[in-house]
Amino acid sequence: MNRLLNLADRTPDSRERYVDFLRALSIAVVVFGHWLAAVITWRDGDIGGTNALEVVDGMWALTWVLQVMPLFFFVGGFSNLKTWRALRQRGGDYTEFLHGRIARLMKPTAIFIGFWMVLTFVLENVFTVPPEALRAATQLMGAPLWFLGVYLLVVTVTPVMVSLHERFRARAVVGLALAAAAIDFARLALEVPVIGVLNFAVVWLFVHQLGFFCADGTFNRMGRAAFGTMAGAGFGALVALTNIGVYSRSMVGVNDGMVGNNAPPSVCICALALAMVGVAMLLRPTASRLLADRRIWALTIGVNTIIMTAYLWHLSAMVLGVLIMYPLGFPQPETGTLAWWTLRPVWLASLTVFLVPFLVALGRFERPRSGRPSIRRNAAPVAAQSKENHHA
Fold this sequence. Notes:
Helices cover 66% and strands 3% of the residues.
């Protein structure tokens, strides 16, 4: 803790601490959200599972708060624009930009993938675990990796998107939103499902583009009324879209007979992002005052140094927790009952305990060799994709 406090004390006043906080918050909410919705059963040694969002009435409403990937990509836009402009000013090139953005992301990811490849081979060939069980396990463990391809794409085209931002400003954002809506129309109304894959890029680039306005100071010149309008427009559009009998009300994937909003992402995610960014900007002054406290800021620094590790391994920690706790008699009340909700905090706290060893053992691979996150720059990276001298 002393090391983090020392780093906190050395943070320049010009640093946008709120961006680091949003990054830490977004991944923490993803982790706890996955754990909250996971319903794992243990019956005589057989493990089963379902999604609480599919069996608990009204729980979809939580996804309007817990689906925080828009904040993740919003912060990415902030970070990537800052870094690209700084590189251009000192003569850096595109190759350096890509290396800096991607290097820290790939090392912990490669370790994660390598571990599960080896474990899967051992389980299949040494312990003869049934293929269907292995398939279910690997699909679960691989779930956090969906965003890697999308984020790598976003990073790769950042210079182009920055150019569009500098030339067209808000028109670029509006154009992306209209493109997302047009792709949805072609996918759903014209029954061209394959075109939907384009929204993996278009929707998240829309959110990423919003971050540029935070990075270039535009949001600093906007008042609370503008952010309130942004939040109201986003939520209003989301309510309208999810009540036309087409889109699911859940912002994460569920089997409810409606069009899902994640795979591929729909225009509903654009609306959610607009609302979340508006609310985040409304809360920015208050949060920034709190982050001026050295202990709160030190905690934010600490979370950011292990954020990718937590994201990659939180489902592994859940499986480990189930394998240990359930045979020992961990309660399994019926999903959605008062007893189930009462037990959820205990469930979340227990899984946090099981995640800690992963963070201790593997968190160092997320940091540079020096092990010292820098606080010199304000181009804070998103989740885990930058050189440490940009502090993540």
